[in-house]
């Protein structure tokens, strides 16, 4: 194990290995304090960053964060490393890597070229040396484009997940929330529902209702019930109209075991979804969610700080070429991200790190009601993420998820972001909105209450679909 040292304020600081160094260099957050990994003081944290800046990137290729023999995520990271892609960076320290990322000459092509040469730990390390504006500036350069029934991640676009959750999975209630979101131009990333009852027949009923509504109006989007990957495989076997296979993932084998998954099961779900061939413009069929604190909450973090172990989850995600990945940044609770400042920082970190790992990164800009955060904090985070080129955000009616009991962002928030930054939805979805007479001549959303026609058509279709059940 390498020992790292530096002197700050006439005091020598010693860090026993990269794992300890990265933990001490992390911005303050409650989860690392809970785990006993955080820096002891601000001076200790700054000293760790000075030491980290001088660490050669090659040190990460020999460091062991979780033993190779004990952890399949580690094996995935090590075995998947591309020395040729790493070669342009091989002589750099972490600090020099930061400078290279911020160099105006480094753009999306250069970032994409080195993607497979980066380990999650390298990416986490460089993020710890960056201010929030640095995270925004670099993430904005990296474009990641994926496709299924529409194309997500193109420049000048901001997509949304329409999340019509219902506390009893009532099909009419889900249908009403879906129509509400569509009338605000939401839903091009996915119409995705967290089921209140995670049983296969219930999930199948919701999937069928959404698919019938989608087909009735030829909506160029994808639907998903966010059930366990094993349920998705069974649904596919039953012939349910399954577009995307969803799963929450984490950065260690033990944490994934807590979710009831391993890499083999993810591969099975990936292959099952691919076999259906339901995509029309692309074949990205997976949807993953992550979040800082997941591994720690399962007692499966192996002494790694929560942000670094989070980035290891992104190595899992990119293995399956997902259509969508998002961090549910404030959902796990204040035990891991205490207040608005910590949530904002974590959201920007996750987006930056996901983009460097080559992921179509979105964010559920959210918090639980017992966190020291409010919607003003969410306004700042969703605005900063939009500047950073976030692929998509979650949108729920009124920003209040009545099933999961947490606060997120609303259909109206997406309108604010698109209007303020002159952004549009996915091109295929935008064409559909125009065909439904929901856009004006300048591509802006019409007042659908004034004309009434789109609302009447969609509500009529929703009633026909749900009444048939």
What does it look like?
The protein has 2 domains: 3-130, Orthogonal Bundle (Annexin V, domain 1); 146-435, Aldolase class I (TIM Barrel, Alpha-Beta Barrel), CATH 3.20.20. The model has no long low-confidence stretch (mean pLDDT 95). The radius of gyration is 22 Å and the shape is globular. It is 47% helix and 11% strand. The protein is of the alpha/beta class and 469 residues long. The strands form 5 sheets. A 4-stranded parallel beta sheet has the order 7-6-5-12. It has a 4-stranded parallel beta sheet with strand order 8-9-10-11. A two-stranded antiparallel ribbon has the order 1-2. The protein is built from 23 helices and 14 strands. Helix 1 (18-25) packs across helix 3. Strand 10, helix 18 and strand 11 (361-363) form a beta-alpha-beta unit. The chain starts with a strand and ends with a helix. Adenosylcob(III)alamin binds at residues 195, 247, 297, 403. GO terms for molecular function: cobalamin binding; ethanolamine ammonia-lyase activity. Its cofactor is adenosylcob(III)alamin.
Uncertain stretches: none
Ends: how far apart?
Answer: 63 Å
The CATH topology of the largest domain is TIM Barrel
Assign an overall shape. globular
Order of strands across the main sheet: 7-6-5-12
* Rg, Å, rounded: 22 Å
By CATH, the architecture of the largest domain is named Alpha-Beta Barrel
Overall number of structural domains: 2
- Report the CATH C-level class of the largest domain: Alpha Beta
**Main pleated sheet:** 4 strands, parallel
What structural class do you assign from the helix and strand content?
alpha/beta
Question: On the 0-100 scale, what is the average pLDDT?
Answer: 95
**What is the beta-strand fraction?**
5-15%
CATH superfamily of the largest domain: Aldolase class I
